[in-house]
C-alpha cells in the first residue's frame, strides 16, 4: 500500500471499509465518543515518530489524512446484531 487513493477495485473497497470500520472503533473508544462527527487521522507507519524522552503513547506524525466518522454507528451495529 504505497498510497491512500481509494479505487473502485475490490482491493480499494476492502481498504476503504477496513479504514472506516477501524476509524469508527477508534472514535467510539475516544473521549469524543459522544460527538456526532469525530475526526480520525491516519498515515503510513513510516510517517510516525516517537520523540526521544517522550511519554509512552506520545508520537508525532506527518503526511496524514483525516476521515470524519460517527462513533454512534458502532453502537447501533452492535444493537442490531
Give an overview in words.
- This protein is an alpha+beta fold and 81 residues long.
- Helices cover 35% and strands 17% of the residues.
- It is built from two helices and four strands.
- Helix 1 (10-28) packs across helix 2 (72-80).
- The mean pLDDT is 81.
The percent of residues in helical segments reads 25-40%
- In N-to-C order, the SSE pattern is HEEEEH
- Poorly predicted ranges: none
Tell me the radius of gyration: 15 Å
Q: What does the largest sheet look like?
A: 2 strands, antiparallel
Can you give me a brief rundown of this structure?
It contains 2 helices and 4 strands, in the order αββββα.
Kindly list the characteristics that best describe this protein:
81 residues, alpha+beta, two-stranded antiparallel ribbon, globular
What's the structural blueprint in terms of helices and strands?
Blueprint: H1 10-28, E1 38-42, E2 48-49, E3 60-61, E4 65-69, H2 72-80
Antiparallel strand pairs: 1-4, 2-3
Helix pairs in contact: 1-2
Amino acid at each position: 500500500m504505497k498510497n491512500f487513493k481509494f479505487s473502485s477495485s475490490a482491493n480499494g473497497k476492502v481498504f476503504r471499509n477496513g479504514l472506516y470500520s477501524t476509524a469508527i472503533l477508534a472514535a467510539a473508544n475516544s473521549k469524543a465518543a459522544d460527538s456526532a462527527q469525530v475526526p480520525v487521522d491516519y498515515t503510513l507507519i513510516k510517517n510516525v515518530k516517537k520523540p526521544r524522552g517522550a511519554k509512552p503513547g506520545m508520537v508525532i506524525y506527518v503526511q496524514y489524512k483525516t476521515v470524519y466518522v460517527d462513533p454512534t454507528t458502532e453502537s447501533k451495529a452492535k444493537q442490531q446484531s
